[in-house]
Amino acid sequence: MEDEPNKKKLLILYASETGNAMDAAERLGREADRRCCPVSVLCIDDFEPKSLPFEETVIYVVSTTGQGDVPDSMKGFWRFLLQRSLSKEWLKGVDYGVFGLGDSSYQKYNFVAKKLDKRLLDLGARPLIERGLGDDQHPSGYEGALDPWMSKLWKILYNKAPNLFPNDPNTATLNGTWVDQPKIQITYHDVGKGNSQCSAAIDFKSLEMLIERTRSMSPGKSSGKMRPDCFLNLTENCPLTRPGSGKDVWHLEFEAVSSSIHYDVGDVLEVLPSQDPVAVDAFMKRCNLNPEAYITVQPSKKENSMGDTNHAPDIPVKLKTFVELTMDIASASPRRYFFEIMSNFASAQHEKERLQYFASPEGRDDLYQYNQKERRTVLEVLEDFPSVQMPLEWLVQLIPPLKTRAFSISSSNSAHPNQVHLTVSVVSWTTPYKRTRKGLCSTWLAGLDPQQRVLIPAWFHKGSLPSPSPSVPLILIGPGTGCAPFRGFVEERALQSKSGPTAPVLFFFGCRNEENDFLYRDFWLSHLQSGGVLSEDKGGGFYVAFSRDQPQKVYVQHKMREQSTKIWNLLAGGAAVYIAGSANKMPSDVLAALEEIISLEGGVTKEVAARWIHALEKSGKYHVEAWS
Ligand SMILES: Cc1cc2nc3c(=O)[nH]c(=O)nc-3n(C[C@H](O)[C@H](O)[C@H](O)COP(=O)(O)OP(=O)(O)OC[C@H]3O[C@@H](n4cnc5c(N)ncnc54)[C@H](O)[C@@H]3O)c2cc1C
Ligand SMILES: Cc1cc2nc3c(=O)[nH]c(=O)nc-3n(C[C@H](O)[C@H](O)[C@H](O)COP(=O)(O)O)c2cc1C
């Protein structure tokens, strides 16, 4: 996949937030390579958009994030493409294809792929192939749509540009002699005992740097900042739900121990979870890895042919530390390519055949059932295929990267200097084969003992909920753990109200039962009392939908409809709407309820009401933070 300037080639540009679009683009690139088609695969922000008109064929693989937003890596490219000065013929002569990755449970399904497709068309580019849309909800995930889209693409490309394909593209993949090479190389280092840079870090700064340099070496590193903003210690944890309620939600309080912290209400905390040491040891043993070895990881010579000569030499890290901090061995499921490469290293014939089947288009659905549906971990897969011994290069390249996890901050920094609070729901589910699976980070956090004083690497981020000014009336909707950011909002406004006038706040909360999972009940009720931020006398309100306390289901949108006039009056007075919580149906149900309220109270049609909300969004007064 080397870049060969001035030569006809296929250009694949990807924009990814969590790695799927990058995987899909790399797969396209490998398939092109196997067909001997010259190809370049680039992250979209590594490509100069001004040179787009000079390309002949560009395939875009883009995911949608946030609420219909472009991934961070695409922001600059997208801004460039939206410039009014670009003419309708700017991309005349450029053929393109778009494959989108999204999730149809989101309101703005594959929004980025759709708007990119439209914009390219507006700029005169010519679509080679109908837009492909990968959907997380498909039984085989995004690959369900990618496989047929790719087969179609090769046929179209072969007809259009046969000179790109020295061989027939439909048979090239059947060529069993193809063996991929890893994209990274690993160097082992003989580290003397006295080398202080490589020995165990002892102070916070060295620990932060160790995390930074280890995670920077990972081929699956995200685009974010590698060095943690701080280390946190857990100071308090208490359950917010009753056992047997079907939910397991915890209130967690942390203090910053390495440096002081600053955040706004509505911000998000990213936490790097710790992996189970037993699993790490089992993995090292299974793969015959020496935990005490010191390594550095670099792109292979071929991958680095672009000449990254300015790259400072990496400082070696202990192999075990590298595994602990960067490779998700006992939580995430490996990708399909992992099975394909494993098959090359299986010494038992029956294992090789099974792995080859899994990696083939025919085996895709069975692989999905075995792997993704069962949330099979890397360690489990390796144990299921004991004859496979994979070189470390492949393990490092293909094992899913250990990702940080996002949680909405549920405290106000002004109310709790140097502290940060989270409201964490412990992720747990049963697979079709009745295996209990647990979320890595939420299980780890909820199980921590404050006495252990474990250091938790953390990063602070702006989310989708900007901190509101005290003079803006607020309509907050946050069922379940969606209440987390609004606990911070209410704390902050309570503090602000001590020093000056503040605008009213309406808060709509939802849970299953009053008895079992009414999160922060006493907190909300205390602010509902006379003079409180949510009190009637301050023009506020607090409304709870207990979905299962009566025969018919009651949700936040039902409670909103009951308060139709109040909501309308606040909206007319310049209120901002904030929604947080489950990405599934909640944001669209809430939106529909708001449209109804505006239509009813304002005496306008639903279409006018929808435009009203659109205008609210444009003016920065409609915000959604939703997660699945
Ligand atoms: C901006 C933002 C703010 C957030 N705020 C909060 C918050 O305040 N509180 C909170 O609790 N969470 C919040 N989340 C969600 C939280 O980040 C995720 O739940 C996170 O994955 C938990 O990490 P974990 O390691 O425990 O679970 P992971 O190990 O990451 O496992 C989660 C994954 O497990 C799988 N999974 C989960 N349930 C099922 C199921 N029933 N069937 C099949 N697969 C399943 C899914 O693939 C899911 O992505 C937020 C997310 C974002 C993006
Ligand atoms: C925080 C978050 C927000 C998302 N928002 C949307 C969305 O608005 N529309 C959509 O179609 N898919 C959405 N998705 C689904 C992703 O697009 C999908 O999981 C995709 O495979 C991710 O690809 P990536 O890893 O390349 O970013 C969202 C996923 C996450 C985690």
TrEMBL record:
One of its GO terms (biological process) is iron-sulfur cluster assembly. Residues 10-154 form the Flavodoxin-like domain. NADP(+) binds at residues 481, 547-548, 553-557, 589. It catalyses: 2 oxidized [2Fe-2S]-[protein] + NADPH = 2 reduced [2Fe-2S]-[protein] + NADP(+) + H(+). Its EC number is 1.18.1.-. Keywords: Cytoplasm, FAD, Flavoprotein, FMN, NADP, Oxidoreductase. It is an enzyme of class 1 (oxidoreductase). GO terms for cellular component: cytosol; nucleus. Its cofactor is FMN; FAD. PROSITE patterns: FAD_FR, FLAVODOXIN_LIKE. GO terms for molecular function: flavin adenine dinucleotide binding; FMN binding; NADP binding; NADPH-iron-sulfur [2Fe-2S] protein oxidoreductase activity; oxidoreductase activity, acting on NAD(P)H. It is found in: Cytoplasm. Residues 227-473 form the FAD-binding FR-type domain. FMN binds at residues 16-21, 63-66, 101-110, 136. SUPFAM superfamilies: Ferredoxin reductase-like, C-terminal NADP-linked domain, Flavoproteins, Riboflavin synthase domain-like. Its main location: cytoplasm. The keyword Iron does not apply. The keyword Cytoplasm applies. CDD domains: CyPoR_like. NADPH-dependent reductase which is a central component of the cytosolic iron-sulfur (Fe-S) protein assembly (CIA) machinery. Transfers electrons from NADPH via its FAD and FMN prosthetic groups to the [2Fe-2S] cluster of the anamorsin/DRE2 homolog, another key component of the CIA machinery. In turn, this reduced cluster provides electrons for assembly of cytosolic iron-sulfur cluster proteins. This is NADPH-dependent diflavin oxidoreductase 1.
